[in-house]
Amino acid sequence: NAGVMQNPRHLVRRRGQEARLRCSPMKGHSHVYWYRQLPEEGLKFMVYLQKENIIDESGMPKERFSAEFPKEGPSILRIQQVVRGDSAAYFCASNPGTTGGLEQFFGPGTRLTVL
Amino acid sequence: AQKVTQAQTEISVVEKEDVTLDCVYETRDTTYYLFWYKQPPSGELVFLIRRNSFDEQNEISGRYSWNFQKSTSSFNFTITASQVVDSAVYFCALDTGGFKTIFGAGTRLFVKA
Questions:
Q1: pLDDT in tens, B57-108
Q2: Which of A81, A113, A94 is nearest to A49 (CA)?
Q3: Which residues in chain B (42-81) have CB-CB distances under 8 A to chain A?
Q4: Which residues of A fall within a CB distance of 8 Å from B100?
């Protein structure tokens, strides 16, 4: 029973390039959450998605960042024209989402380094 | 506004000591959920416990115990007889049922042998 999978685990990009982070939720989970963790800081909520729908993107920067969770395939967090300040660990979590207040199951994270 | 405060940035203890991690939350909602997660050096967050706002009963699980007090808006976490493997960052989190979880800044626990 595979857990939440994220790839790549490490990603290096130069300023101005695009970063695409992928997340496959646990089997049976239709709700995905993305968080960003800056070095020595806590988790900051970015976006919450269900299949084909963005439910809450209040934590995501308005420019350069986008997220999707298509009917088929993983959820994608896309960062265009990366800058050094985007360097962070990006975590994906999932749960069945049948009700509020459920625990989330986290992936191992993608560590993005922008040179 | 919802907020979670973990005032202790880092705690260092010697093995076998007891340690309490503090968590204070703010919300105007009457229904909410509180969580603790552990982030070991490997990086992946691990769920430890969930509490809903109507259940103030304290809980014990092995060496772990949680003290939920609505009167002081606190949800503290105690590790008894700490071990080196307990070294990690611990996050307290709040969910008011809207599917969005607010995390505290985390407390880094060092347990020395």
A1: 888 889 999 999 999 999 999 999 999 999 999 999 999 876 778 999 999 9
A2: A94
A3: 42-47, 50, 52
A4: 45, 48, 56, 58
